[in-house]
Amino acid sequence: MAEKLSFEAPRGMRDFYPEDMVWRNMVFDAFRAAGDAAGFVPYDACVVENYDLLARKAGEEVGEQIYHFLDKSERRLALRAEMTPTLARMVAQRQKELHFPLKWTAIAQCFRYERMTKGRKREHYQWNMDIIGETSVLAEAEVIGAAVDALRRMDLTTAAFKVHASSRRFLGELLEKSRIAADKHAQVFLALDKRGKMPDAEIAAMLHDGGLSDDETAAAFRIMETKSYDGCPELVELFHLAEIAGFADALMFDIGVIRGLSYYTGVVFECFDTAGEFRAIFGGGRYDNLLTTIGGEPTCAVGLGFGDVVVTELLKARLGDAAVNARRGVAVGFMFPEQRDAALALAARLRADGERVDLALHSQKPKKFFSAAGASGAAKAVFLGPDDVEKGVARIKDMETREETDLCLRPER
């Protein structure tokens, strides 16, 4: 006997029913509008990548986390885990032809096999914004500013989120001044990334296990308490630009922002909800060496990855269902088959006027039609009976107030 087929999506993957698409569209619309407003141009790429390209990215557990396979020609391929390596490949392929700086954006579906926790799936969509070929900190300001704009377009205020910014370069300088050897910097980065997630005693043990002496460990903890970025010109400039651009209230200095990827070289940032309930909303930074790791010419770059999972959970928690339940459009129905053509003509006219119209596909009783119109979320409803068509006038009902007004079926041209 055949095993019963499961109707569940594969573990860690998602289906999007119509009620889910309302939230997704709210997020994606904000992504696209904010990117367009900031002058970013869209691009896209294949979701299947060359495994070797993804394996070039240092610091990742590639074999364990990436969905990879051999195709029928024995080529080793993988589902992309993020867009940045693909972007680097595309830019390197046409590096001699492109006009820099580039401001590119994409909403990419990504796959990563890992342990699922709150805000983390094995599949997600990620909004990427990258500026390639620009050394100025204005590039960081443009990317962060666009991301803040997207959150505001989702009706979130800066009371609900903050962008934590730091600099890998600045942190490296602090470590050097504290005489912590360069080969131990990675261990300090790891400890900083864990600060607040585990007790300081465990972090101290981690540093000792990584080869730091008692003096070096004490110096690392002093660095972790750094509250000023005055010694870092690029951060001073970033906060100055944020003030001019109007998102300074969303930006804060945080020496603990590390970013897990080893290719970040300068300013790094992560956005969190102020209540501390969720994982990072988005993150990114300057990565000036990525193209060279795949064989391209040296090119500076700043990028951001903004996933859809966490921000959707945040929106649901902060805004509630009312944010996506607003009624819109017109439902049009008819009592008998003889009124079908008149209903279709009315729907066509309303659509030509820019209305969203849900046309009933068969005749039905008034009670059933209005019940379905209410359930569909229509703002207004028109039901045509024999008398309405004969008179050339129908009644259009507001589904919230129940008020009715006349609607001419044969308007004068």
Key attributes of the depicted protein:
413 residues; alpha+beta; 8-stranded mixed β-sheet; 5-stranded mixed β-sheet; 15 helices
Outline the structure in words.
With 413 residues, the protein is an alpha+beta fold. It folds into 2 domains: 18-321, 2-Layer Sandwich (BirA Bifunctional Protein, domain 2); 330-408, Rossmann fold, CATH 3.40.50.800. It is 38% helix and 21% strand. It contains 15 helices and 16 strands. It has helices at residues 18-37, 51-55, 62-65, 84-93, 138-153, 168-177, 185-194, 200-209, 214-224, 233-245, 290-293, 308-319, 340-352, 366-376, 386-391; strands at residues 41-42, 48-50, 68-70, 76-79, 102-111, 123-132, 161-167, 251-253, 267-273, 282-286, 301-307, 330-334, 357-359, 380-384, 393-398, 404-408. The strands form 3 sheets. An 8-stranded mixed sheet has the order 1-5-6-11-10-9-7-8. A 5-stranded mixed sheet has the order 13-12-14-15-16, with helices on both faces. Strands 2-4-3 form a 3-stranded antiparallel sheet. A hairpin with a 5-residue loop joins strand 15 and strand 16. Helix 1 (18-37) packs antiparallel against helix 5, helix 5 crosses helix 10 and helix 7 runs antiparallel to helix 8. The protein starts with 17 loop residues before the first helix and ends in a 5-residue tail after the last strand. The relative contact order is 0.11. The model has no long low-confidence stretch (mean pLDDT 91).
